[in-house]
Design a protein that fits this description.
alpha/beta; Peroxisomal Thiolase, Chain A, domain 1; 12 helices; 14 strands
Protein backbone atom coordinates (compact mmCIF):
# COMPACT_ATOMS: atom_id res chain seq x y z
CA UNK A 1 0.00 0.00 0.00
CA UNK A 2 1.45 3.33 -1.09
CA UNK A 3 0.51 6.81 0.11
CA UNK A 4 1.13 10.05 -1.76
CA UNK A 5 -0.90 12.46 0.35
CA UNK A 6 -0.29 11.47 3.98
CA UNK A 7 1.90 13.37 6.43
CA UNK A 8 2.65 12.46 10.05
CA UNK A 9 2.26 16.00 11.36
CA UNK A 10 3.03 15.48 15.04
CA UNK A 11 3.31 12.99 17.87
CA UNK A 12 2.22 13.60 21.46
CA UNK A 13 3.18 11.41 24.41
CA UNK A 14 2.52 11.17 28.13
CA UNK A 15 4.73 9.20 30.52
CA UNK A 16 3.60 8.00 33.96
CA UNK A 17 5.52 9.14 37.05
CA UNK A 18 5.99 5.94 38.98
CA UNK A 19 9.11 3.96 38.08
CA UNK A 20 9.06 0.25 38.91
CA UNK A 21 12.33 -1.63 38.50
CA UNK A 22 12.63 -5.30 37.71
CA UNK A 23 14.41 -5.65 41.05
CA UNK A 24 11.33 -4.27 42.84
CA UNK A 25 9.12 -6.85 41.12
CA UNK A 26 11.48 -9.64 42.11
CA UNK A 27 11.38 -8.43 45.72
CA UNK A 28 7.59 -8.83 45.66
CA UNK A 29 8.08 -12.30 44.19
CA UNK A 30 10.52 -13.29 46.95
CA UNK A 31 8.36 -16.20 48.24
CA UNK A 32 8.15 -17.70 44.75
CA UNK A 33 11.82 -17.05 43.94
CA UNK A 34 12.94 -18.64 47.20
CA UNK A 35 10.76 -21.72 46.77
CA UNK A 36 11.87 -22.28 43.16
CA UNK A 37 15.45 -21.18 43.88
CA UNK A 38 15.43 -18.61 41.12
CA UNK A 39 18.39 -16.18 41.06
CA UNK A 40 17.81 -12.47 41.61
CA UNK A 41 18.27 -10.40 38.47
CA UNK A 42 16.72 -13.08 36.27
CA UNK A 43 13.92 -10.80 35.01
CA UNK A 44 16.21 -8.05 33.74
CA UNK A 45 18.82 -10.50 32.48
CA UNK A 46 16.33 -12.42 30.32
CA UNK A 47 14.38 -9.40 29.02
CA UNK A 48 16.83 -6.51 28.97
CA UNK A 49 14.15 -4.52 30.81
CA UNK A 50 15.41 -2.69 33.89
CA UNK A 51 12.36 -0.48 34.43
CA UNK A 52 8.80 0.18 33.48
CA UNK A 53 6.32 2.85 34.59
CA UNK A 54 2.87 2.75 36.19
CA UNK A 55 0.02 5.24 36.23
CA UNK A 56 -1.43 6.23 39.58
CA UNK A 57 -4.00 3.70 40.86
CA UNK A 58 -7.51 4.22 39.43
CA UNK A 59 -6.25 6.38 36.55
CA UNK A 60 -8.88 6.26 33.76
CA UNK A 61 -7.37 5.22 30.45
CA UNK A 62 -8.98 8.17 28.64
CA UNK A 63 -7.20 10.89 30.65
CA UNK A 64 -3.63 10.32 29.38
CA UNK A 65 -5.11 9.76 25.89
CA UNK A 66 -6.78 13.17 26.06
CA UNK A 67 -3.51 14.74 27.15
CA UNK A 68 -1.40 13.07 24.45
CA UNK A 69 -3.92 14.01 21.74
CA UNK A 70 -4.07 17.61 22.89
CA UNK A 71 -0.29 17.82 22.91
CA UNK A 72 -0.15 16.58 19.31
CA UNK A 73 -2.85 19.02 18.17
CA UNK A 74 -1.37 22.03 19.95
CA UNK A 75 2.16 21.30 18.74
CA UNK A 76 0.94 21.15 15.14
CA UNK A 77 -1.26 24.22 15.53
CA UNK A 78 -4.19 22.36 13.99
CA UNK A 79 -7.71 23.49 14.98
CA UNK A 80 -9.66 20.57 16.51
CA UNK A 81 -12.50 20.99 14.04
CA UNK A 82 -10.20 19.94 11.19
CA UNK A 83 -9.88 16.42 12.62
CA UNK A 84 -12.13 14.04 10.66
CA UNK A 85 -11.33 10.77 12.45
CA UNK A 86 -10.38 9.81 15.99
CA UNK A 87 -9.39 6.22 16.76
CA UNK A 88 -8.59 4.98 20.26
CA UNK A 89 -6.45 1.93 19.59
CA UNK A 90 -4.88 0.62 22.78
CA UNK A 91 -5.51 -2.75 24.39
CA UNK A 92 -6.67 -0.90 27.51
CA UNK A 93 -9.85 1.17 27.50
CA UNK A 94 -12.27 2.72 30.00
CA UNK A 95 -15.27 0.51 29.27
CA UNK A 96 -16.45 -2.28 27.03
CA UNK A 97 -18.90 0.37 25.85
CA UNK A 98 -19.16 3.16 24.92
CA UNK A 99 -15.94 3.53 22.99
CA UNK A 100 -13.20 5.26 24.99
CA UNK A 101 -12.75 7.37 21.87
CA UNK A 102 -16.07 9.06 22.69
CA UNK A 103 -14.76 10.71 25.84
CA UNK A 104 -11.51 11.69 24.14
CA UNK A 105 -13.51 13.18 21.26
CA UNK A 106 -15.70 15.18 23.66
CA UNK A 107 -12.84 16.54 25.77
CA UNK A 108 -10.87 17.60 22.70
CA UNK A 109 -13.87 19.46 21.27
CA UNK A 110 -13.74 17.69 17.92
CA UNK A 111 -16.39 18.08 15.23
CA UNK A 112 -19.64 16.09 15.27
CA UNK A 113 -18.81 15.07 11.69
CA UNK A 114 -15.80 13.11 12.96
CA UNK A 115 -15.44 9.33 12.66
CA UNK A 116 -15.04 8.12 16.28
CA UNK A 117 -14.37 4.56 17.40
CA UNK A 118 -12.13 2.16 19.31
CA UNK A 119 -9.87 -0.34 17.56
CA UNK A 120 -8.23 -3.39 19.11
CA UNK A 121 -5.28 -5.25 17.59
CA UNK A 122 -2.94 -6.07 20.47
CA UNK A 123 0.46 -4.38 20.10
CA UNK A 124 -0.40 -3.24 16.56
CA UNK A 125 -3.38 -1.11 17.61
CA UNK A 126 -1.88 2.32 16.94
CA UNK A 127 -0.17 1.25 13.72
CA UNK A 128 -3.46 -0.29 12.51
CA UNK A 129 -5.30 2.94 13.31
CA UNK A 130 -2.60 4.95 11.57
CA UNK A 131 -3.10 2.94 8.38
CA UNK A 132 -6.88 3.36 8.55
CA UNK A 133 -6.60 7.13 8.96
CA UNK A 134 -3.98 7.32 6.22
CA UNK A 135 -6.33 5.47 3.86
CA UNK A 136 -9.15 7.94 4.60
CA UNK A 137 -6.80 10.85 3.93
CA UNK A 138 -5.43 9.30 0.73
CA UNK A 139 -8.97 8.80 -0.58
CA UNK A 140 -9.91 12.41 0.21
CA UNK A 141 -12.54 11.47 2.82
CA UNK A 142 -10.88 13.48 5.61
CA UNK A 143 -8.08 16.02 5.92
CA UNK A 144 -6.74 15.01 9.32
CA UNK A 145 -7.07 12.26 11.92
CA UNK A 146 -5.69 11.19 15.29
CA UNK A 147 -4.91 7.69 16.49
CA UNK A 148 -4.24 7.52 20.21
CA UNK A 149 -3.88 4.94 22.94
CA UNK A 150 -2.98 4.49 26.59
CA UNK A 151 -1.73 1.26 28.11
CA UNK A 152 -1.79 0.54 31.84
CA UNK A 153 0.39 -2.25 33.24
CA UNK A 154 -0.23 -1.92 36.98
CA UNK A 155 -3.15 -4.33 37.30
CA UNK A 156 -1.61 -6.97 35.03
CA UNK A 157 1.73 -6.95 36.83
CA UNK A 158 0.18 -6.88 40.31
CA UNK A 159 -2.32 -9.64 39.44
CA UNK A 160 0.50 -11.76 38.03
CA UNK A 161 2.63 -11.32 41.16
CA UNK A 162 -0.30 -12.26 43.39
CA UNK A 163 -1.19 -15.30 41.28
CA UNK A 164 2.39 -16.58 41.22
CA UNK A 165 2.87 -16.19 44.95
CA UNK A 166 -0.38 -18.04 45.67
CA UNK A 167 0.25 -20.96 43.29
CA UNK A 168 1.93 -23.69 45.31
CA UNK A 169 2.01 -26.00 42.27
CA UNK A 170 4.21 -23.61 40.29
CA UNK A 171 7.46 -25.01 38.86
CA UNK A 172 10.52 -23.48 37.22
CA UNK A 173 8.98 -24.58 33.91
CA UNK A 174 5.39 -23.42 34.43
CA UNK A 175 6.40 -19.97 35.67
CA UNK A 176 7.75 -19.19 32.20
CA UNK A 177 4.21 -18.63 30.86
CA UNK A 178 3.88 -15.60 33.16
CA UNK A 179 7.29 -14.12 32.44
CA UNK A 180 6.18 -11.76 29.64
CA UNK A 181 3.46 -10.26 31.87
CA UNK A 182 6.13 -8.96 34.24
CA UNK A 183 7.83 -6.95 31.45
CA UNK A 184 4.78 -4.81 30.65
CA UNK A 185 4.86 -1.04 31.19
CA UNK A 186 2.46 1.90 30.94
CA UNK A 187 2.41 4.84 28.56
CA UNK A 188 0.34 6.97 26.20
CA UNK A 189 0.93 8.20 22.66
CA UNK A 190 -1.03 10.05 19.93
CA UNK A 191 -0.20 10.39 16.24
CA UNK A 192 -1.70 13.22 14.17
CA UNK A 193 -1.86 12.55 10.43
CA UNK A 194 -2.90 15.18 7.88
CA UNK A 195 -3.29 15.65 4.17
CA UNK A 196 -0.04 16.66 2.51
CA UNK A 197 -1.56 19.97 1.39
CA UNK A 198 -2.42 20.77 5.01
CA UNK A 199 0.98 19.77 6.37
CA UNK A 200 3.55 22.29 7.53
CA UNK A 201 6.22 19.65 8.16
CA UNK A 202 6.46 17.35 5.15
CA UNK A 203 6.95 14.25 7.34
CA UNK A 204 5.59 11.56 5.05
CA UNK A 205 4.10 8.11 5.49
CA UNK A 206 4.99 6.63 2.11
CA UNK A 207 4.14 2.92 2.22
CA UNK A 208 3.08 0.06 4.44
CA UNK A 209 2.47 -3.67 4.29
CA UNK A 210 0.63 -6.12 6.55
CA UNK A 211 0.83 -9.85 7.18
CA UNK A 212 -1.29 -12.25 9.26
CA UNK A 213 -0.13 -15.71 10.31
CA UNK A 214 -3.00 -16.52 12.64
CA UNK A 215 -1.98 -20.15 13.19
CA UNK A 216 0.03 -18.64 16.07
CA UNK A 217 -2.95 -16.96 17.77
CA UNK A 218 -2.74 -19.15 20.91
CA UNK A 219 0.86 -18.28 21.79
CA UNK A 220 -0.11 -15.15 23.76
CA UNK A 221 -3.59 -14.80 25.25
CA UNK A 222 -5.34 -12.91 28.00
CA UNK A 223 -7.97 -14.70 30.07
CA UNK A 224 -11.07 -12.57 29.41
CA UNK A 225 -12.10 -9.30 27.79
CA UNK A 226 -11.97 -6.70 30.56
CA UNK A 227 -11.96 -2.91 30.70
CA UNK A 228 -11.51 -0.13 33.25
CA UNK A 229 -9.05 0.65 36.01
CA UNK A 230 -10.44 -2.10 38.30
CA UNK A 231 -9.74 -4.99 35.91
CA UNK A 232 -7.54 -7.85 37.17
CA UNK A 233 -6.18 -9.45 34.00
CA UNK A 234 -3.87 -12.43 33.66
CA UNK A 235 -2.00 -13.55 30.56
CA UNK A 236 -0.34 -16.76 29.43
CA UNK A 237 2.50 -16.48 26.93
CA UNK A 238 4.70 -19.13 25.38
CA UNK A 239 7.59 -16.66 25.19
CA UNK A 240 10.08 -18.92 23.43
CA UNK A 241 7.72 -20.07 20.68
CA UNK A 242 6.30 -16.56 20.32
CA UNK A 243 9.82 -15.16 19.95
CA UNK A 244 10.80 -17.50 17.12
CA UNK A 245 7.42 -17.42 15.38
CA UNK A 246 7.31 -13.63 15.62
CA UNK A 247 10.78 -13.29 14.10
CA UNK A 248 9.68 -15.51 11.20
CA UNK A 249 6.58 -13.41 10.59
CA UNK A 250 8.70 -10.26 10.80
CA UNK A 251 11.16 -11.54 8.22
CA UNK A 252 8.37 -12.38 5.77
CA UNK A 253 6.67 -9.02 6.33
CA UNK A 254 9.96 -7.21 5.72
CA UNK A 255 10.34 -9.11 2.47
CA UNK A 256 6.90 -7.80 1.48
CA UNK A 257 8.03 -4.27 2.32
CA UNK A 258 11.08 -4.65 0.08
CA UNK A 259 8.94 -6.18 -2.67
CA UNK A 260 6.61 -3.16 -2.49
CA UNK A 261 9.41 -0.96 -3.79
CA UNK A 262 11.30 0.00 -0.64
CA UNK A 263 15.06 -0.36 -1.07
CA UNK A 264 17.14 -1.58 1.85
CA UNK A 265 19.52 1.32 1.10
CA UNK A 266 16.66 3.76 1.70
CA UNK A 267 16.37 2.76 5.34
CA UNK A 268 18.44 5.13 7.44
CA UNK A 269 17.00 4.02 10.78
CA UNK A 270 14.56 1.50 12.19
CA UNK A 271 12.21 1.26 15.17
CA UNK A 272 10.99 -2.20 16.19
CA UNK A 273 8.24 -3.26 18.54
CA UNK A 274 9.65 -2.91 22.06
CA UNK A 275 9.48 -6.47 23.44
CA UNK A 276 12.97 -6.99 24.85
CA UNK A 277 16.62 -7.50 24.11
CA UNK A 278 16.49 -10.97 22.55
CA UNK A 279 13.66 -10.04 20.16
CA UNK A 280 15.40 -6.87 19.01
CA UNK A 281 18.77 -8.57 18.50
CA UNK A 282 17.37 -11.55 16.58
CA UNK A 283 15.00 -9.42 14.49
CA UNK A 284 17.67 -6.99 13.34
CA UNK A 285 20.11 -9.83 12.57
CA UNK A 286 17.52 -11.66 10.45
CA UNK A 287 16.53 -8.47 8.62
CA UNK A 288 20.13 -7.47 7.99
CA UNK A 289 19.71 -4.13 9.76
CA UNK A 290 22.31 -2.49 12.00
CA UNK A 291 21.60 -2.33 15.71
CA UNK A 292 23.34 1.04 16.02
CA UNK A 293 20.76 2.48 13.59
CA UNK A 294 17.78 1.15 15.56
CA UNK A 295 16.18 3.09 18.41
CA UNK A 296 14.79 1.31 21.46
CA UNK A 297 13.18 2.26 24.78
CA UNK A 298 12.19 -1.10 26.28
CA UNK A 299 15.12 -1.00 28.72
CA UNK A 300 13.55 1.86 30.70
CA UNK A 301 9.88 1.81 29.61
CA UNK A 302 9.27 -1.93 29.28
CA UNK A 303 6.85 -3.35 26.73
CA UNK A 304 4.05 -0.77 26.53
CA UNK A 305 1.94 -2.71 24.05
CA UNK A 306 0.27 -0.72 21.29
CA UNK A 307 2.01 2.53 22.24
CA UNK A 308 5.49 0.95 22.46
CA UNK A 309 6.67 1.49 18.89
CA UNK A 310 5.06 4.96 18.48
CA UNK A 311 6.55 6.09 21.81
CA UNK A 312 9.98 4.78 20.83
CA UNK A 313 9.64 6.66 17.54
CA UNK A 314 8.74 9.83 19.47
CA UNK A 315 11.71 9.43 21.81
CA UNK A 316 14.08 8.73 18.96
CA UNK A 317 12.97 11.89 17.17
CA UNK A 318 12.95 13.95 20.36
CA UNK A 319 16.47 12.87 21.30
CA UNK A 320 17.87 13.62 17.85
CA UNK A 321 18.97 10.00 17.34
CA UNK A 322 16.51 9.80 14.43
CA UNK A 323 17.63 12.79 12.43
CA UNK A 324 15.61 15.22 10.32
CA UNK A 325 15.94 14.30 6.65
CA UNK A 326 16.10 10.57 7.36
CA UNK A 327 13.95 7.61 6.35
CA UNK A 328 12.75 5.44 9.24
CA UNK A 329 11.28 1.95 8.93
CA UNK A 330 8.61 1.09 11.48
CA UNK A 331 8.69 -2.67 12.15
CA UNK A 332 5.58 -3.65 14.09
CA UNK A 333 4.60 -7.10 15.34
CA UNK A 334 1.65 -8.10 17.53
CA UNK A 335 0.00 -11.16 19.03
CA UNK A 336 -1.98 -13.17 16.57
CA UNK A 337 0.63 -13.14 15.00
CA UNK A 338 0.18 -10.02 12.86
CA UNK A 339 2.74 -7.61 11.48
CA UNK A 340 2.60 -4.12 10.02
CA UNK A 341 5.68 -2.44 8.60
CA UNK A 342 5.86 1.06 7.18
CA UNK A 343 8.30 3.53 5.65
CA UNK A 344 8.37 7.11 6.84
CA UNK A 345 10.37 10.20 5.86
CA UNK A 346 11.10 12.95 8.41
CA UNK A 347 11.79 16.47 7.24
CA UNK A 348 10.69 18.48 10.27
CA UNK A 349 9.70 16.25 13.20
CA UNK A 350 7.28 17.62 15.82
CA UNK A 351 7.16 15.70 19.10
CA UNK A 352 5.38 17.05 22.18
CA UNK A 353 5.39 15.75 25.74
CA UNK A 354 6.97 16.33 29.12
CA UNK A 355 10.14 14.51 30.13
CA UNK A 356 11.15 14.19 33.77
CA UNK A 357 14.84 14.13 34.66
CA UNK A 358 15.03 10.34 34.52
CA UNK A 359 13.58 10.22 31.00
CA UNK A 360 15.80 13.10 29.88
CA UNK A 361 18.83 11.20 31.13
CA UNK A 362 17.86 8.17 29.04
CA UNK A 363 17.40 10.27 25.91
CA UNK A 364 20.77 11.96 26.39
CA UNK A 365 22.40 8.58 26.90
CA UNK A 366 20.86 7.14 23.73
CA UNK A 367 22.87 9.38 21.42
CA UNK A 368 25.89 7.81 19.69
CA UNK A 369 28.43 9.99 21.49
CA UNK A 370 26.96 8.79 24.78
CA UNK A 371 27.32 5.10 23.94
CA UNK A 372 27.44 2.97 27.06
CA UNK A 373 25.52 5.51 29.17
CA UNK A 374 22.03 4.78 27.90
CA UNK A 375 20.87 2.80 30.92
CA UNK A 376 19.53 4.50 34.02
CA UNK A 377 21.96 3.95 36.91
CA UNK A 378 19.31 3.35 39.56
CA UNK A 379 19.69 6.64 41.43
CA UNK A 380 16.08 7.19 42.50
CA UNK A 381 17.01 10.38 44.30
CA UNK A 382 16.47 12.26 41.04
CA UNK A 383 13.25 14.28 41.48
CA UNK A 384 10.34 13.68 39.13
CA UNK A 385 7.45 16.05 38.36
CA UNK A 386 3.88 15.03 39.11
CA UNK A 387 2.66 13.91 35.68
CA UNK A 388 -0.95 13.51 36.80
CA UNK A 389 -1.14 17.20 37.66
CA UNK A 390 -1.23 18.10 33.99
CA UNK A 391 -4.02 15.67 33.15
CA UNK A 392 -7.76 16.46 33.24
CA UNK A 393 -9.30 15.82 36.63
CA UNK A 394 -11.09 12.47 36.94
CA UNK A 395 -14.80 12.81 37.65
Amino acid sequence: MHFNRVAIESIGFTLPDQIVTSSMIEQQLAPTYERLRLPEGRLELMSGIAQRRFWAPDMPISLPSINSSRLALDAAGLPPERVGCLIHASVCRDYLEPATACRVHFELGLSSNCWVYDLSNACLGLLSGMVQIATLIEQGVIQAGIVVGTESARNLVESTIQSLNQDSSLTRQSIKASFASLTIGSGSCAILLVDRDLSQTGNLLSSCVARAESQHHQLCQSETDQAGHAMQPLMQTDSEQLLHAGIGVGVRTFEQLLASGVSRDQIDYSVCHQVGGAHRRMMLERLGLKSDRDYSTFGWLGNTGSVALPTALAMGLRSGFLKAGSHVALLGIGSGINSIMAMTAWRNPIVAGELDEVASKHLEGSLPQASGRHRYDGDHSIPKPNATSRLPVAP
